[in-house]
Design goal:
Elements: H1 2-12, H2 38-46, H3 52-64, H4 66-69, H5 76-84, E1 95-102, E2 106-113, E3 129-134, E4 137-148, E5 159-173, E6 179-183, E7 194-197, H6 200-206, E8 214-220, E9 227-231, H7 232-237, E10 240-243, H8 250-264, E11 268-274, E12 287-290, H9 304-312, H10 318-340, H11 344-352, H12 367-379, H13 387-401, H14 407-410, H15 419-426, E13 436-440, H16 449-466, E14 472-477, H17 493-505, E15 511-517, H18 525-529, E16 533-536, H19 542-551, H20 557-560, E17 570-575, E18 582-586, H21 617-624, H22 644-656
Parallel strand pairs: 10-15, 10-16, 11-13, 11-14, 12-13, 14-15
Antiparallel strand pairs: 1-2, 1-7, 2-5, 3-4, 3-7, 4-5, 5-6, 8-9, 8-18, 16-17, 17-18
Helix pairs in contact: 1-2, 1-3, 9-16, 10-11, 10-12, 10-13, 12-13, 16-17
């Protein structure tokens, strides 16, 4: 009889069963069996001999409404209909308790639970969404805490459970019968309101983007049958961020997001800054990869601050910087004079004019002209600047021009005015099936990385602005905390300025930014706050979680607390690109479409990046010195193509033995050697 008494106790605490309450059938429907009253059910149960197994089955049937409907447990279709039934007067297994407390943001639900009932195991857990019936409206709430009134769990009795929930929004029907979800709550649950397990249909309505252009990026964590979708237009026009600790799948998730955006926005051009050389194979034929041997950023594209950082390695000498500014403006003016045929006197007046060329003008010039101007100043009887500063600057420039690691700036036709072909190649105009430009920064000297990023970010904004809406450019910043750190005194100011300009003004001109970082706490909060959509993956650091909470307007404290427990490839997305805060799992991708850092997969002996045999110390030394390009046969590049007259003059000079061949930058080319340079 112990089992029988437990069943009676469970029935007695079931708030859905009231003595003698009939179940009226809706108009036009088939008559349904009237459920017995609680006293009748208790008498029936007392007369039966139950063991623990049959008792658990009986409780499950009573809770699912099958006893009242006269159906057997094998009728799966009937169970599904009962589960999804909306009528409040019909007992269903979706009911989990009643509201006992409510304020402006949260509510408490009280219910009974015992060790025999497992029907509610899928929604009796933190992080699940439930619904609370308030008239014709269903308020959606998120479970963030569960507790019992007693510190001891009684296995032989029904235990009272308190469930703390946070109110998220509400689902209602309009006059046309269409179901819709809206953020915020217009009508709060009253004490005694019934809480239910949320229906699958309501979950779909919650995350439905309507007529907004959307793409699927995964499946909901609560119900894998429901797709997780995002709005592409809102994602790009208002910027987005992907944050998470190392190894949770940020790069893989980013690849999926970019691919999905490209599938619905063919005019999109993506410039991806790759500091670890891991995206080269992730996009396959969709991407054009630029590394140290193929990247072309002529020195005249660099503004004065950027070139200054390259020349002085971040330790500027003011006297030499002043000399550099003067000779840069004069060299650019001289070059333009050659093209226009202006007089020398007119050149000087234009250089001194406020509206003339200056050190920041994006106009080509020759490095040989810089050397000439510096040498002329050194040879003056009374030069404007100290001779040792002039000579020091001359040595710096000469060392930089002849360093093969800086070949992408100086040895590929930097003096040629091929701005349009350069932009065409860098921004894939036309795309020719490759709308993604991957900039492999790992092969560039670390001293020049900040300046290169500054130039690229600035070009992204300028190109989008100049296209007048015909082109949408997305700049993807991997390891963004390197370029825009939290400390305003750290990092490279021009890089910070260029990225901040995109974040603040880019959306008006069709330029977007994607910020990717493993430490949002070290990222400039101004940049992160401009990202209206944030994909937050696992974050264990409390400071990082606090940064996310402060950056996103609709991120609640209870939702943020789940970040430390997320699985790999799982994220919580906040912001404008989704209908409401969404926890989901990213779609599985084939291994061939995943990013992989070259040479780091030591567990995969068949990886393409792996090389067999012992490492060669001489080859390593050669790569570190930047001499690996000298072994390759010379290949003509877009900017290295000289005019026919230059080629004829160079060939005649070399054949006559009159001079050493020079680069288009104006400095002598290094002579080929048989061994390593010492």
């Amino acid at each position: 009889m112990k089992c029988t008494s437990e069943v009676i106790m469970a029935l007695d605490h079931d708030p859905r069963l009231s003595a003698g309450a009939p179940n009226p059938a809706p108009a036009g429907s088939r008559p349904q069996a009237t459920p017995p009253s609680l006293s009748q059910m208790s008498t029936s149960v007392s007369a039966r001999s139950l063991n623990p197994t049959s008792a658990a089955e009986l409780i499950a049937q009573v809770q699912s409404g099958l006893v009242a409907a006269g159906l057997g447990s094998d009728d799966a279709e009937a169970q599904r209909k009962v589960f999804e039934r909306r009528a409040m007067e019909q007992p269903t297994e979706r009911m989990i308790g009643r509201v006992t407390f409510c304020n402006g943001a949260r509510a408490t639900i009280s219910t009974m639970a015992d060790n025999l009932s497992e029907a509610s195991s899928d929604f009796w857990s933190v992080g699940r969404l439930i619904s609370i019936t308030v008239g014709k409206v269903r308020v959606v709430a998120l479970v963030f805490e569960m507790s019992t009134d007693s510190s001891v769990w009684d296995p032989n009795a029904a235990n009272a459970v308190s469930v703390q929930v946070e109110l998220m929004g509400e689902i209602s029907e309009d006059v046309h019968g269409r179901t819709r979800f809206q953020r915020g709550v217009s009508r709060y649950p009253q004490v005694g309101a019934v809480a239910h397990k949320i229906r699958a249909r309501d979950l779909e309505v919650m995350h439905d983007l309507g007529d907004r252009k959307s793409v699927e990026v995964g499946r909901l964590s609560q119900n894998a049958d429901i797709p997780a979708t995002i709005s592409v237009n809102d994602l790009l026009t208002r910027h987005f961020a992907v944050v998470g600790t190392t190894g949770v799948g940020k790069s893989c998730s980013l690849t999926l997001l970019v691919r999905q955006c490209l599938s619905v926005k063919p005019e999109l051009r993506v410039v991806l800054l790759d500091p670890h050389n891991e995206f080269a194979g992730a996009f396959g034929p969709l991407a054009q990869v630029f590394d140290a041997s193929t990247l072309e950023l002529p020195f005249w594209l660099f503004r004065f601050e950027e070139l200054e950082d390259v020349i002085f390695r971040g330790k500027t000498i003011s006297e030499e910087a002043e000399i550099l500014r003067e000779v840069l403006a004069q060299a650019k003016t001289n070059f333009q004079n050659e093209k226009t045929g202006a007089t020398a006197a007119g050149l000087v007046r234009k250089a001194l004019d406020v509206g003339g060329l200056n050190a920041d003008s994006p106009m080509p010039y020759r490095m040989s002209e810089l050397f000439k101007l510096i040498d002329e100043n050194i040879g003056l009887l009374s030069p404007r600047h100290e001779r040792h500063h002039l000579k020091s600057l001359r040595v710096r420039l000469d060392a930089l021009v002849n360093d093969p690691r800086y070949g992408f700036m100086f040895t590929r036709g930097g003096a040629e005015d091929n701005f349009a072909p350069l932009l065409s190649r860098l921004f894939r105009l036309p795309a020719e099936g490759k709308p993604v430009s991957i900039i492999n920064l790992s092969g560039l000297p670390s001293d020049v990385t900040n300046a290169v990023v500054s130039v690229l970010a600035r070009l992204c904004f300028d190109v989008a602005y100049a296209s007048e809406g015909q082109l949408h450019v997305l700049l993807v910043c991997e390891e963004a905390h390197r370029y825009v750190p939290q400390d305003p005194n750290a990092g490279f100011i021009p890089t910070r300025r260029a990225i901040a300009r995109i974040a603040k003004e880019g959306r008006k001109y069709g330029c977007s930014i994607a910020v990717v970082s493993q430490r949002p706490g070290e990222l400039d909060p101004t940049i992160l706050s401009q990202c209206s959509t944030v994909f937050a993956m696992r974050l264990a650091n409390d400071r990082d979680q606090e940064i996310i909470r402060s950056a996103i307007a609709d991120s609640s404290g209870s939702t943020i607390s789940f970040l430390s427990a997320l699985d790999n490839a799982e994220a919580i997305v906040f912001g404008e690109a989704v209908a409401t805060t969404m926890r989901f799992k990213f779609t599985y991708q084939e291994p061939a479409k995943l990013p992989r850092a070259a040479g780091t997969d030591i567990t995969d002996p068949t990886a393409n990046a792996r090389k067999t045999g012992e490492a060669d110390s001489f080859m390593i030394a050669k790569r570190l010195r930047g001499l690996r390009d000298l072994e390759k046969p010379p290949q003509p590049t877009m900017l290295a193509e000289a005019s026919s007259q230059q080629k004829l003059a160079a060939a005649a000079g070399i054949s006559a033995g009159l001079r050493q061949p020079t680069s288009t930058a104006g400095s002598p080319l290094p002579r080929p050697t048989s061994g390593l340079r010492t």
